[in-house]
Design a protein that fits this description.
- The chain has helices at residues 14-25, 32-41, 45-56, 62-73, 91-103, 118-132, 139-162, 175-188, and strands at residues 2-7, 29-31, 81-85, 110-115, 166-170.
- It has a five-stranded parallel beta sheet, sandwiched between helices.
- The two termini are 13 Å apart.
- Helix content is 56%, strand content 13%.
- The chain is an alpha/beta fold and 199 residues long.
- It has eight helices and five strands; from the N terminus they run E-H-E-H-H-H-E-H-E-H-H-E-H.
- It binds adenosine-5'-diphosphate.
- Residues 10-11, 14, 32-33, 36, 53-54, 57-60, 65, 86-87, 89, 93, 136, 145 line the site of adenosine-5'-diphosphate (ADP).
- Adenosine-5'-diphosphate (ADP) is lined by residues 10-11, 14, 32-33, 36, 53-54, 57-60, 65, 86-87, 89, 93, 136, 145.
């Protein structure tokens, strides 16, 4: 019954850690970025609506994002825990998530903030642009995504800190090191890895 949220600037490694943590804790990783990208690829109506915002490095409007996440969280695999990656990223999305969780008698256990220096994330994304060819990893777009993060998402960190659920993790280091830091911090909060044999 673990409900976690990963928050941090673009390039901090949320997607990479989300996949590993979801596997380790036995909960589905739900990434709004991945869901949008697959909709763009499959040219769905949602994908068509989201594409221009994504290419520009802007947030997709809350109305679209909230509707999408409401449907996803209502699926049966999300009943017993989730790992949210990239959602919520605006105050309006926090309100939506709060209402959903409250309505289902659920709550977030921990919000993990991946802390990374902007220069380092810009450099990581420059590499990813070459390796994966993501259309929003162009340098000017990356800078804009960082600005959008600072304006719209960073305020959520204080909000979660005030609720007493925030854990800050240094995101600079190897992928394994960062995963270990997160699992250690979660263990301190009473969230331990399920016994591999019982999974
Ligand atoms: P990153 O964290 O590296 O910016 P994501 O894969 O999380 O990458 O997001 C890529 C793009 O998808 C964002 O720039 C935005 O356009 C869109 N997106 C993802 N999640 C959300 C969200 N919760 N609200 C609005 N737009 C989103």
């Amino acid at each position: 019954m673990t409900r976690l949220l990963l928050i941090g600037p673009p390039g901090a490694g949320k997607g990479t850690q989300a996949v590993r943590l979801a596997e380790a804790y036995g909960v589905p990783a739900i990434s709004t970025g991945d869901i949008f990208r697959s909709n763009v690829k499959n040219e769905t109506e949602l994908g068509k609506q989201a594409k221009a915002y994504m290419d520009a490095g802007d947030n997709v409007p809350d109305s679209l994002t909230n509707a999408l996440i409401r449907d996803r969280l209502a699926e049966s695999d999300a009943e017993h825990g989730v790992l949210l990656d990239g959602y919520p990223r605006t105050e309006d999305q926090v309100r939506e998530l709060d209402a959903f969780l409250l309505g289902h008698g659920q709550a977030l256990d921990v919000v993990v903030e991946l802390v990374a220096d902007p220069d380092i994330v810009v450099e990581r994304l420059r590499k990813r642009a070459v390796e994966q060819g993501r259309s929003d990893d162009d340098e000017a777009v990356v800078r804009h995504r960082l600005e959008v993060y600072r304006e719209q998402t960073e305020p959520l960190i204080d909000l979660y800190e005030n609720r007493g659920v925030l854990v800050k993790i240094d995101a600079i280091g190897s992928v394994d090191e960062v995963t270990e830091r997160i699992t250690a911090a979660l263990a301190e909060r009473g969230i331990s890895l399920p016994d591999a044999a019982t999974r």
